[in-house]
Amino acid sequence: MAFNTNTDIWIAGAFAAFTVDLLVYPLDTLKTRIQSPDYKKLYTENGRASRALFRGLYQGIGSIILVTLPSSGAFFTTYEALKYTLNDAVPPNSTLYMPQPVINAISSGGAELVSCAILTPAEVIKQNAQVAQKTIKGVGPTLSVLKEFRRHPFRLWSGYTALAGRNLPFTAMQFPVFEHLKSHFMEKRRRQKGAEVDGIFERASITSMSAGIAGSGAAWITTPIDVIKTRMMLAAGNRGQTVENKNIGTLLTEGLSSKSSKGIWETAKEVGQTDGLRGFFRGAALRAVWTAVGSGLYLGVYEGGRFYLEDARKSKEEKNHIMPKDWSSVQVGVGRSRSQGEAIKKSGWQDDSK
Prior knowledge:
Keywords: Membrane, Mitochondrion, Mitochondrion inner membrane, Repeat, Transmembrane, Transmembrane helix, Transport. It is a multi-pass membrane protein. This protein has a two-stranded antiparallel ribbon with strand order 1-2. Helix content is about 65%, strand content about 0%. The chain is built from 11 helices and 2 strands. The chain has helices at about 5-35, 40-45, 60-90, 100-130, 140-150, 160-195, 200-220, 225-235, 250-255, 265-280, 285-320; strands spanning about 45, 50.
């Protein structure tokens, strides 16, 4: 981190998000459709998946790419800043002891709160576009969904509490395990090589593997709140829904409060009544696979990009310094002449005998 700037972290995080969105977005669309309350009605025929389930798998990708870039940059900037601030404030030998997994969990949790506030509108647009069956003539799914929110733009922040409620435990579980696995695999590789792991591709590969393992487990466990989040965001796009005039701050903490909208507990109760316990884990296997691939690519590309930028900045810094940085090897003053092998005599005012 000595040679990384906030700009480096933003660029690495944004590039990672862009790469993942392009590659694994179809799996996210499938997961959203499977969790939709209208899944059986719209995407099945005779108890089996219909062709409609696999049609238009990139619907809504424009909105999520546009907003994921700043949200991912905000996440990694906040995460790195909190992690290093807490590590500096609570050194290993201090009287105030805080385990590293706790530091990682706090840092990732704080980063998620910032990221979710930016990401929620895009998530609402994306998920409604993913299940859009009819669109306005000559207009794509994303713009069609946006027109639905034109009169009530604050509805775009509905589901923030559910999104944060899913992402906070997810990152709190994923990042401590991820950091532990990464350190374990790095140390194992270091012992095999007999040297530090400094190759960008090698570091990115280890990071990707660690993130995939940690992410898949966390994704499976947090699937119930993901189902609730999906239902709430899809409900926000329903036509005819009315919303009281509220500011964004109120919506972030309370969500929608109209008669036609439902909060987290009401939505959870509805899922339980209609689908039972199995309904809370609808799409869990797909989400675990999607998250393993997505998290592996996401953090792997981020780590590779961050160290690439760090190496480039480090090389540039070293080239710009003509004089050596380490002055301990430079001898000045009274001593033996390196060219003649003789002792340099003291000046008259330095003679101790006088």
